[in-house]
Amino acid sequence: MSVAQLTRPLGPVAHGVIAAALAASAASFVPDADARITSIVLSNTSPAPAFGGATFGTVGQSELITGVANGEVDPLDLLDALIEDIGHAPLSSNGRVAYSTQLVILRPVDLSHATRPCCSRSSTAETF
């Protein structure tokens, strides 16, 4: 068989497979920013009623969980270097810049009414 006999026009499925392979290959070359959350500290150990305890339709009451999320970024990473004045921030012992941000979670008191139930209460702690 000659090469000409082995080649045929590609169908739409083959074009889709090739496009998916090229997209996956290109995505593998996107650099990852190496930012991470290092700890979460919850401020309230028992969630506070949200909106003065008002009830909303069939969902019922909501509760607020607040806290602080602590993290770190690498100032040498090109994606993190876009942060204004990151070069002037103090570095931790591992050469990263620490940050913190407020954390606020609003969820139904009765988790069976959550849009996407993700949490369950146990007698000792909450698991996520």
The number of domains: 1
Number of helices: 2
DSSP strand count: 7
**Overall body shape:** flat
Strand content: 25-35%
What assembly state would you assign to the polypeptide chains in this entry? single chain
Helix/strand-derived category reads alpha+beta
Compute the CA-based radius of gyration: 25 Å
User: What's the order of the H and E elements?
Assistant: HHEEEEEEE
Q: Mean of residue pLDDT?
A: 75
Relative helix content: 10-25%
Distance between the termini: 61 Å
Low-confidence parts lasting 5 or more residues at pLDDT below 50?
A: 1-7, 123-128
Largest beta sheet, briefly?
Answer: 5 strands, antiparallel
Summed up:
With 128 residues, the chain is α+β, with helices and mostly antiparallel strands. 16% of the residues lie in helices and 32% in strands.
Structure description:
By secondary structure, the chain is α+β, with helices and mostly antiparallel strands. It has one domain. The strands form two sheets. Strands 1, 2, 3, 4 and 5 form a five-stranded antiparallel sheet that branches. Strands 6-7 form a two-stranded antiparallel ribbon. A hairpin with a 4-residue loop joins strand 6 and strand 7. It starts with a helix and ends with a strand. The relative contact order is 0.15.
Strand and helix layout:
Elements: H1 3-6, H2 12-27, E1 36-42, E2 48-49, E3 55-56, E4 60-73, E5 97-108, E6 120-121, E7 126-127
